[in-house]
User: Fold this.
Amino acid sequence: MTALRPIETEIFTHAKVTRGKVSPPSSFGRPPRLDWIAIRDLAVDPDYQREITPIGRQNVRRIVTEFNWSMFAPVVVAAVGGGRFAIVDGQHRVTAAALCGLDKVPCAIIECSRSEQAAAFKAINGNTTRLYSIQVHHAAVMAGEPEALRIAEVCAKAGITICRYPKSTKGMKPGETVSVRALGRVIFKFGDAVVVPTLTAIRQACDGNAGMLTQTIIYGACEVLADHPEWRSNQKALTAAFDQIDLDTLYHEAASVAARTKGTSTLNQFESRLVDALEKQFRASKRA
Assistant:
């Protein structure tokens, strides 16, 4: 088990890192109180709350089908009189709880005016830290979700490492990638027989092809090798062929042509160039 990491504040004391001193306000306002509140006493203020959109309805359905109290964050509400409370944050969670037949939900009750409620809604929903797909993937692996475990299994076979935090292609080591969604797509579409030899060849060639495991290259290379099983029948020969191909140049040529040509895409152009390059290398190997 990885050692738990404590909350660290030291980094915020360095002005060069934080772009200036971090100074808390003179007042933190009134602290919320926690309580379980009946759903019938909760309401939505349409002046600042959003409607539940089609995407929101999908989210509600997902919460319902996967409902578990361990995944239910307390709803932020504000008292509005008459024993009723306006939902500041958690409309989708409360709707899902009602659909599950529950009559109460845990709430953090804040004391503020309607304008302050709107400001709280904006702050809670606007100041969230973006959660990247790679971070979601690693959490899903830890949770034992089948799709994430499948991706991890295939990556282990090919010697690929999914980064734990965003990196630029220039900062990546051989075998590292952040393209977890592309990996999920190719594994689902093509399976191990295509994905493992393809990723293995890319990783083993050209000193590891650092930074080349991008969405376009992963998907394009797997698409090409799915159509050419003869090229992936010999891992050593496939890796040798990739060792003579500059994937970075192929990608930038493809992107340049796609940018000035209607009816095509970088992916299509990359696949076409990769086919030509691999055909050339396999022809040369047969003559040798």
